[in-house]
Write a structure and sequence with these properties.
single chain, alpha/beta, Rossmann fold, 4-stranded antiparallel β-sheet, 7 helices, 28% strand, ABC_transporter-like_ATP-bd, lipoprotein, nucleotide-binding, MacB-like_ATP-bd
Length: 223
């Protein structure tokens, strides 16, 4: 699904250069459930941003489903993000004036895919919060809000979901519950999950661990 060939990301080229990623080679297959981990500054967020077409590499080749990302126009990259990639953020990023239902529905509106109300409710049911469809974010716990963000990422049936520190703001019980939900979705649907985390719990759930250090892959192993 995803192939990095000698991917390098350099900030401030020609000045005081910062190498966020250095000659990274990696392949991510369909339906993987994998975690990128490493110390702060190791390149985890840059890695996710490039995979998610939110940033571009300084050099190297990125293939998404066999398509060379560097050959695509901005509008084409936007379509990939909109239709094929779902994002889960540690701060949830829900729209505060919209209900859980509406926060999930907006992902379908932006994707321009056809949908019914049942599609929205089914996704909320999948993550265990169909009964909270009419609640605003402020009326929900952190764990419930994260479930809404997972539903928002899943509802458009993406090929890939990227989750940046998805358990960072949750207590251990909610973190465990959220990881169980995402594992179940990975097994139920044809969707690949890639996490960035410091949390040992996320690493425990992952089936593949990739450690970054100083912008390079130091370890890549299956569990």
């Amino acid at each position: 699904m995803i192939t990095f060939k000698k991917i390098t990301k350099t900030y401030n080229p020609g000045k005081i250069e910062v190498h966020a990623l250095k000659d990274v080679d990696i392949t991510i297959e369909k339906k993987e459930f994998m975690t990128i981990f490493g110390p702060s500054g190791s390149g985890k967020t840059t890695f996710l941003n490039i995979v998610g077409c939110l940033d571009v590499a300084t050099s190297g080749e990125y293939l998404f489903e066999g398509e060379r990302i560097s050959d695509l126009k901005p509008i084409e990259l936007s379509m990939i993000r909109r239709e094929k990639i779902g994002f889960i953020f540690q701060t949830y990023n829900l729209i505060p004036v919209l209900t859980a239902y509406e926060n999930v529905e907006i992902a379908m509106i932006l994707s321009r895919k056809r949908y019914t109300k049942d599609d929205i409710y089914k996704t909320l049911e999948d993550v265990g919060i169909a009964d909270l469809a009419d609640r605003l974010p402020r009326e929900m716990s952190g764990g419930q809000q994260q479930r809404v963000s997972i539903a928002r990422a899943l509802v458009k049936s993406p090929k890939l979901i990227l989750a940046d520190e998805p358990t960072a703001n949750l207590d251990s019980e909610n973190a465990m519950s959220i990881m169980e939900v995402m594992k179940a979705m990975n097994e139920k649907y044809d969707v690949t999950f890639v996490f960035s985390t410091h949390d040992p719990l996320v690493m425990e759930f992952a089936r593949r661990l990739v450690k970054l250090k100083d912008g390079k892959i130091e370890e890549d192993r299956l569990k």
